[in-house]
Specification:
The chain is an alpha/beta fold. Helix 1 packs across helix 17, helix 2 packs across helix 3 and helix 13 crosses helix 16. It is elongated and about 75 Å long.
Length: 426
């Protein structure tokens, strides 16, 4: 068996995205650990900025196209190469992809032709798709066309949303070399879909503690901070309502929300109606977010299972708040229950319960020693169980096994790769 590092391609719908800092951080750590990795994406996001730390990302990025007919020569060359090198597989896979006929099917086939040619040109050994949606479907189709093996990291919306077709999900994930996912709940759910012998690998969502540095706390009086996309599953309407209850009880707080999204005006209207002092800061660079963390008395993100079935896996920003030693209040949705242990590393409240959320905020704001203890324990918990270095070592081991190459495992690999062993300690 060779010990040469496999060449891994990360396949993404868009890259880099403001809301997906975990992908860029993972890639940076992979390179830091000596992995050979390149990025292939369908589009570059049209966003106001990119996080400064992405400047540390030293990988080649190849953009395909979301509309293959806009680059017909590129698509034709890829198709011709497939027909020359994999004629039977191409005909069979093309038939499956385009029957019944649909614009999406033909578009994905053109994208796969472009991708297969690029992967062969670049000597890629294995493809890893983040999210079990567009990227995973494209990796699956490219594999059917004779491309390299593939794996998928599944998060939450991509497996739980009501629009996800379970049969299609089983088809795409069931033929992957392995499926990584971020929480024990996800592992159990996916094994229920794919079968108990499916190779589902628990790879906790994690943070780069070296980049975040040592916490320096200068909390402002009664400052409640939330960082999230302004969408239903984040539970921010409950947070505004809870702050309204605190206002009515004579204990006002200052609420600060960082992020953007479709519920911005609804949340602002609710805050005005309830007399809540709220500052909407919009989307900020990660360094600016961490600076605001230092000033927060408490970080609150009362996530819920949305009406569509959508939910969070384990929000990176919760781990960042814990790493910054900010006391965290959240719910038990999915992986949050593995990170925020009630009364020990943070505070849990029931979903959709503004009264319980208000009580938790009142408790922590009114008890600085408790806040300090929860913040310190949260930081220790992240260091022990949600360190990016260890999570990336798990991925590297899984990549090595998928490609038949050697690799050094971290101290936790043997317990976690291919198992649902817990990653949180007592």
């Amino acid at each position: 068996m060779t010990t040469e590092q496999p060449h891994i391609a990360y396949l993404l719908k868009r890259f880099p995205r403001i809301s997906e800092t975990f992908v860029a951080a993972e890639l940076i750590e992979l390179r830091r650990q000596g992995a050979r990795v390149s990025v292939y994406a369908l589009a570059k996001p049209e966003e106001a900025f990119t996080h400064d730390f992405i400047d540390d990302l030293d990988v080649d990025v190849t953009y395909l196209t979301r509309r293959p007919l806009q680059q017909p020569l590129r698509t034709v060359r890829g198709t011709q190469e497939l027909l020359r090198t994999q004629p039977r597989a191409t005909v069979i896979a093309a038939g499956k992809a385009t029957l019944p006929p649909s614009v999406t099917g033909w578009r994905r086939l053109g994208q796969a032709a472009q991708l297969a040619r690029a992967l062969r040109r670049d000597g890629v050994d294995h493809v890893h798709a983040h999210f079990a949606s567009s990227a995973a479907k494209l990796a699956h189709l490219t594999w059917q066309l004779g491309g390299p093996s593939y794996s998928v990291t599944a998060h939450a919306k991509d497996i739980y949303h009501q629009d996800v077709d379970p049969r299609r999900l089983v088809e795409v994930l069931g033929q992957a070399a392995f499926v990584a996912t971020v929480s024990r709940d996800n592992v159990e759910y996916l094994r229920g879909l794919l079968g108990s012998d499916a190779r589902v690998t628990l790879v906790p969502n994690s943070v780069d503690l070296a980049r975040l540095g040592t916490p320096a706390r200068t909390p402002e009086p009664a400052l409640v901070l939330a960082v999230a996309r302004l969408v239903e599953k984040k539970g921010l309407d409950d947070l505004v309502a809870a702050c309204g209850l605190l206002q009515d009880s004579g204990q006002p707080v200052a609420l600060e929300i960082i992020g953007h999204g479709p519920l911005r005006e609804d949340l602002a209207h609710a805050a005005r109606r309830l007399g809540v002092a709220v500052t909407f800061r919009g989307a900020l660079d990660n360094a600016e977010v961490m600076e605001r963390m230092a000033h927060a008395t408490v970080f609150a993100l009362p996530c819920v299972v949305a009406s569509t079935g959508d939910r969070d896996g384990l929000p990176t920003v919760v781990l960042e708040a814990m790493a910054a030693a900010v006391p965290v209040i959240t719910t038990d949705v999915n992986g949050l229950s593995e990170a925020v242990l009630h009364g020990r590393t943070g505070w849990q409240v029931p979903q959709r319960d503004p009264a319980a959320l208000a009580s938790a905020i009142r408790t922590i704001v009114g008890d600085p020693p408790l806040a300090a203890r929860l913040g310190a324990a949260g930081r220790d918990h992240v260091e022990a169980n949600f360190c990016l270095r260890d999570s990336v070592a798990l991925l590297r081991s899984a990549f090595s096994e998928a490609t038949g190459t050697g690799g050094v495992r971290s101290h936790r690999d043997r317990a976690l790769v291919g198992s649902s062993a817990p990653v949180v300690g007592p």
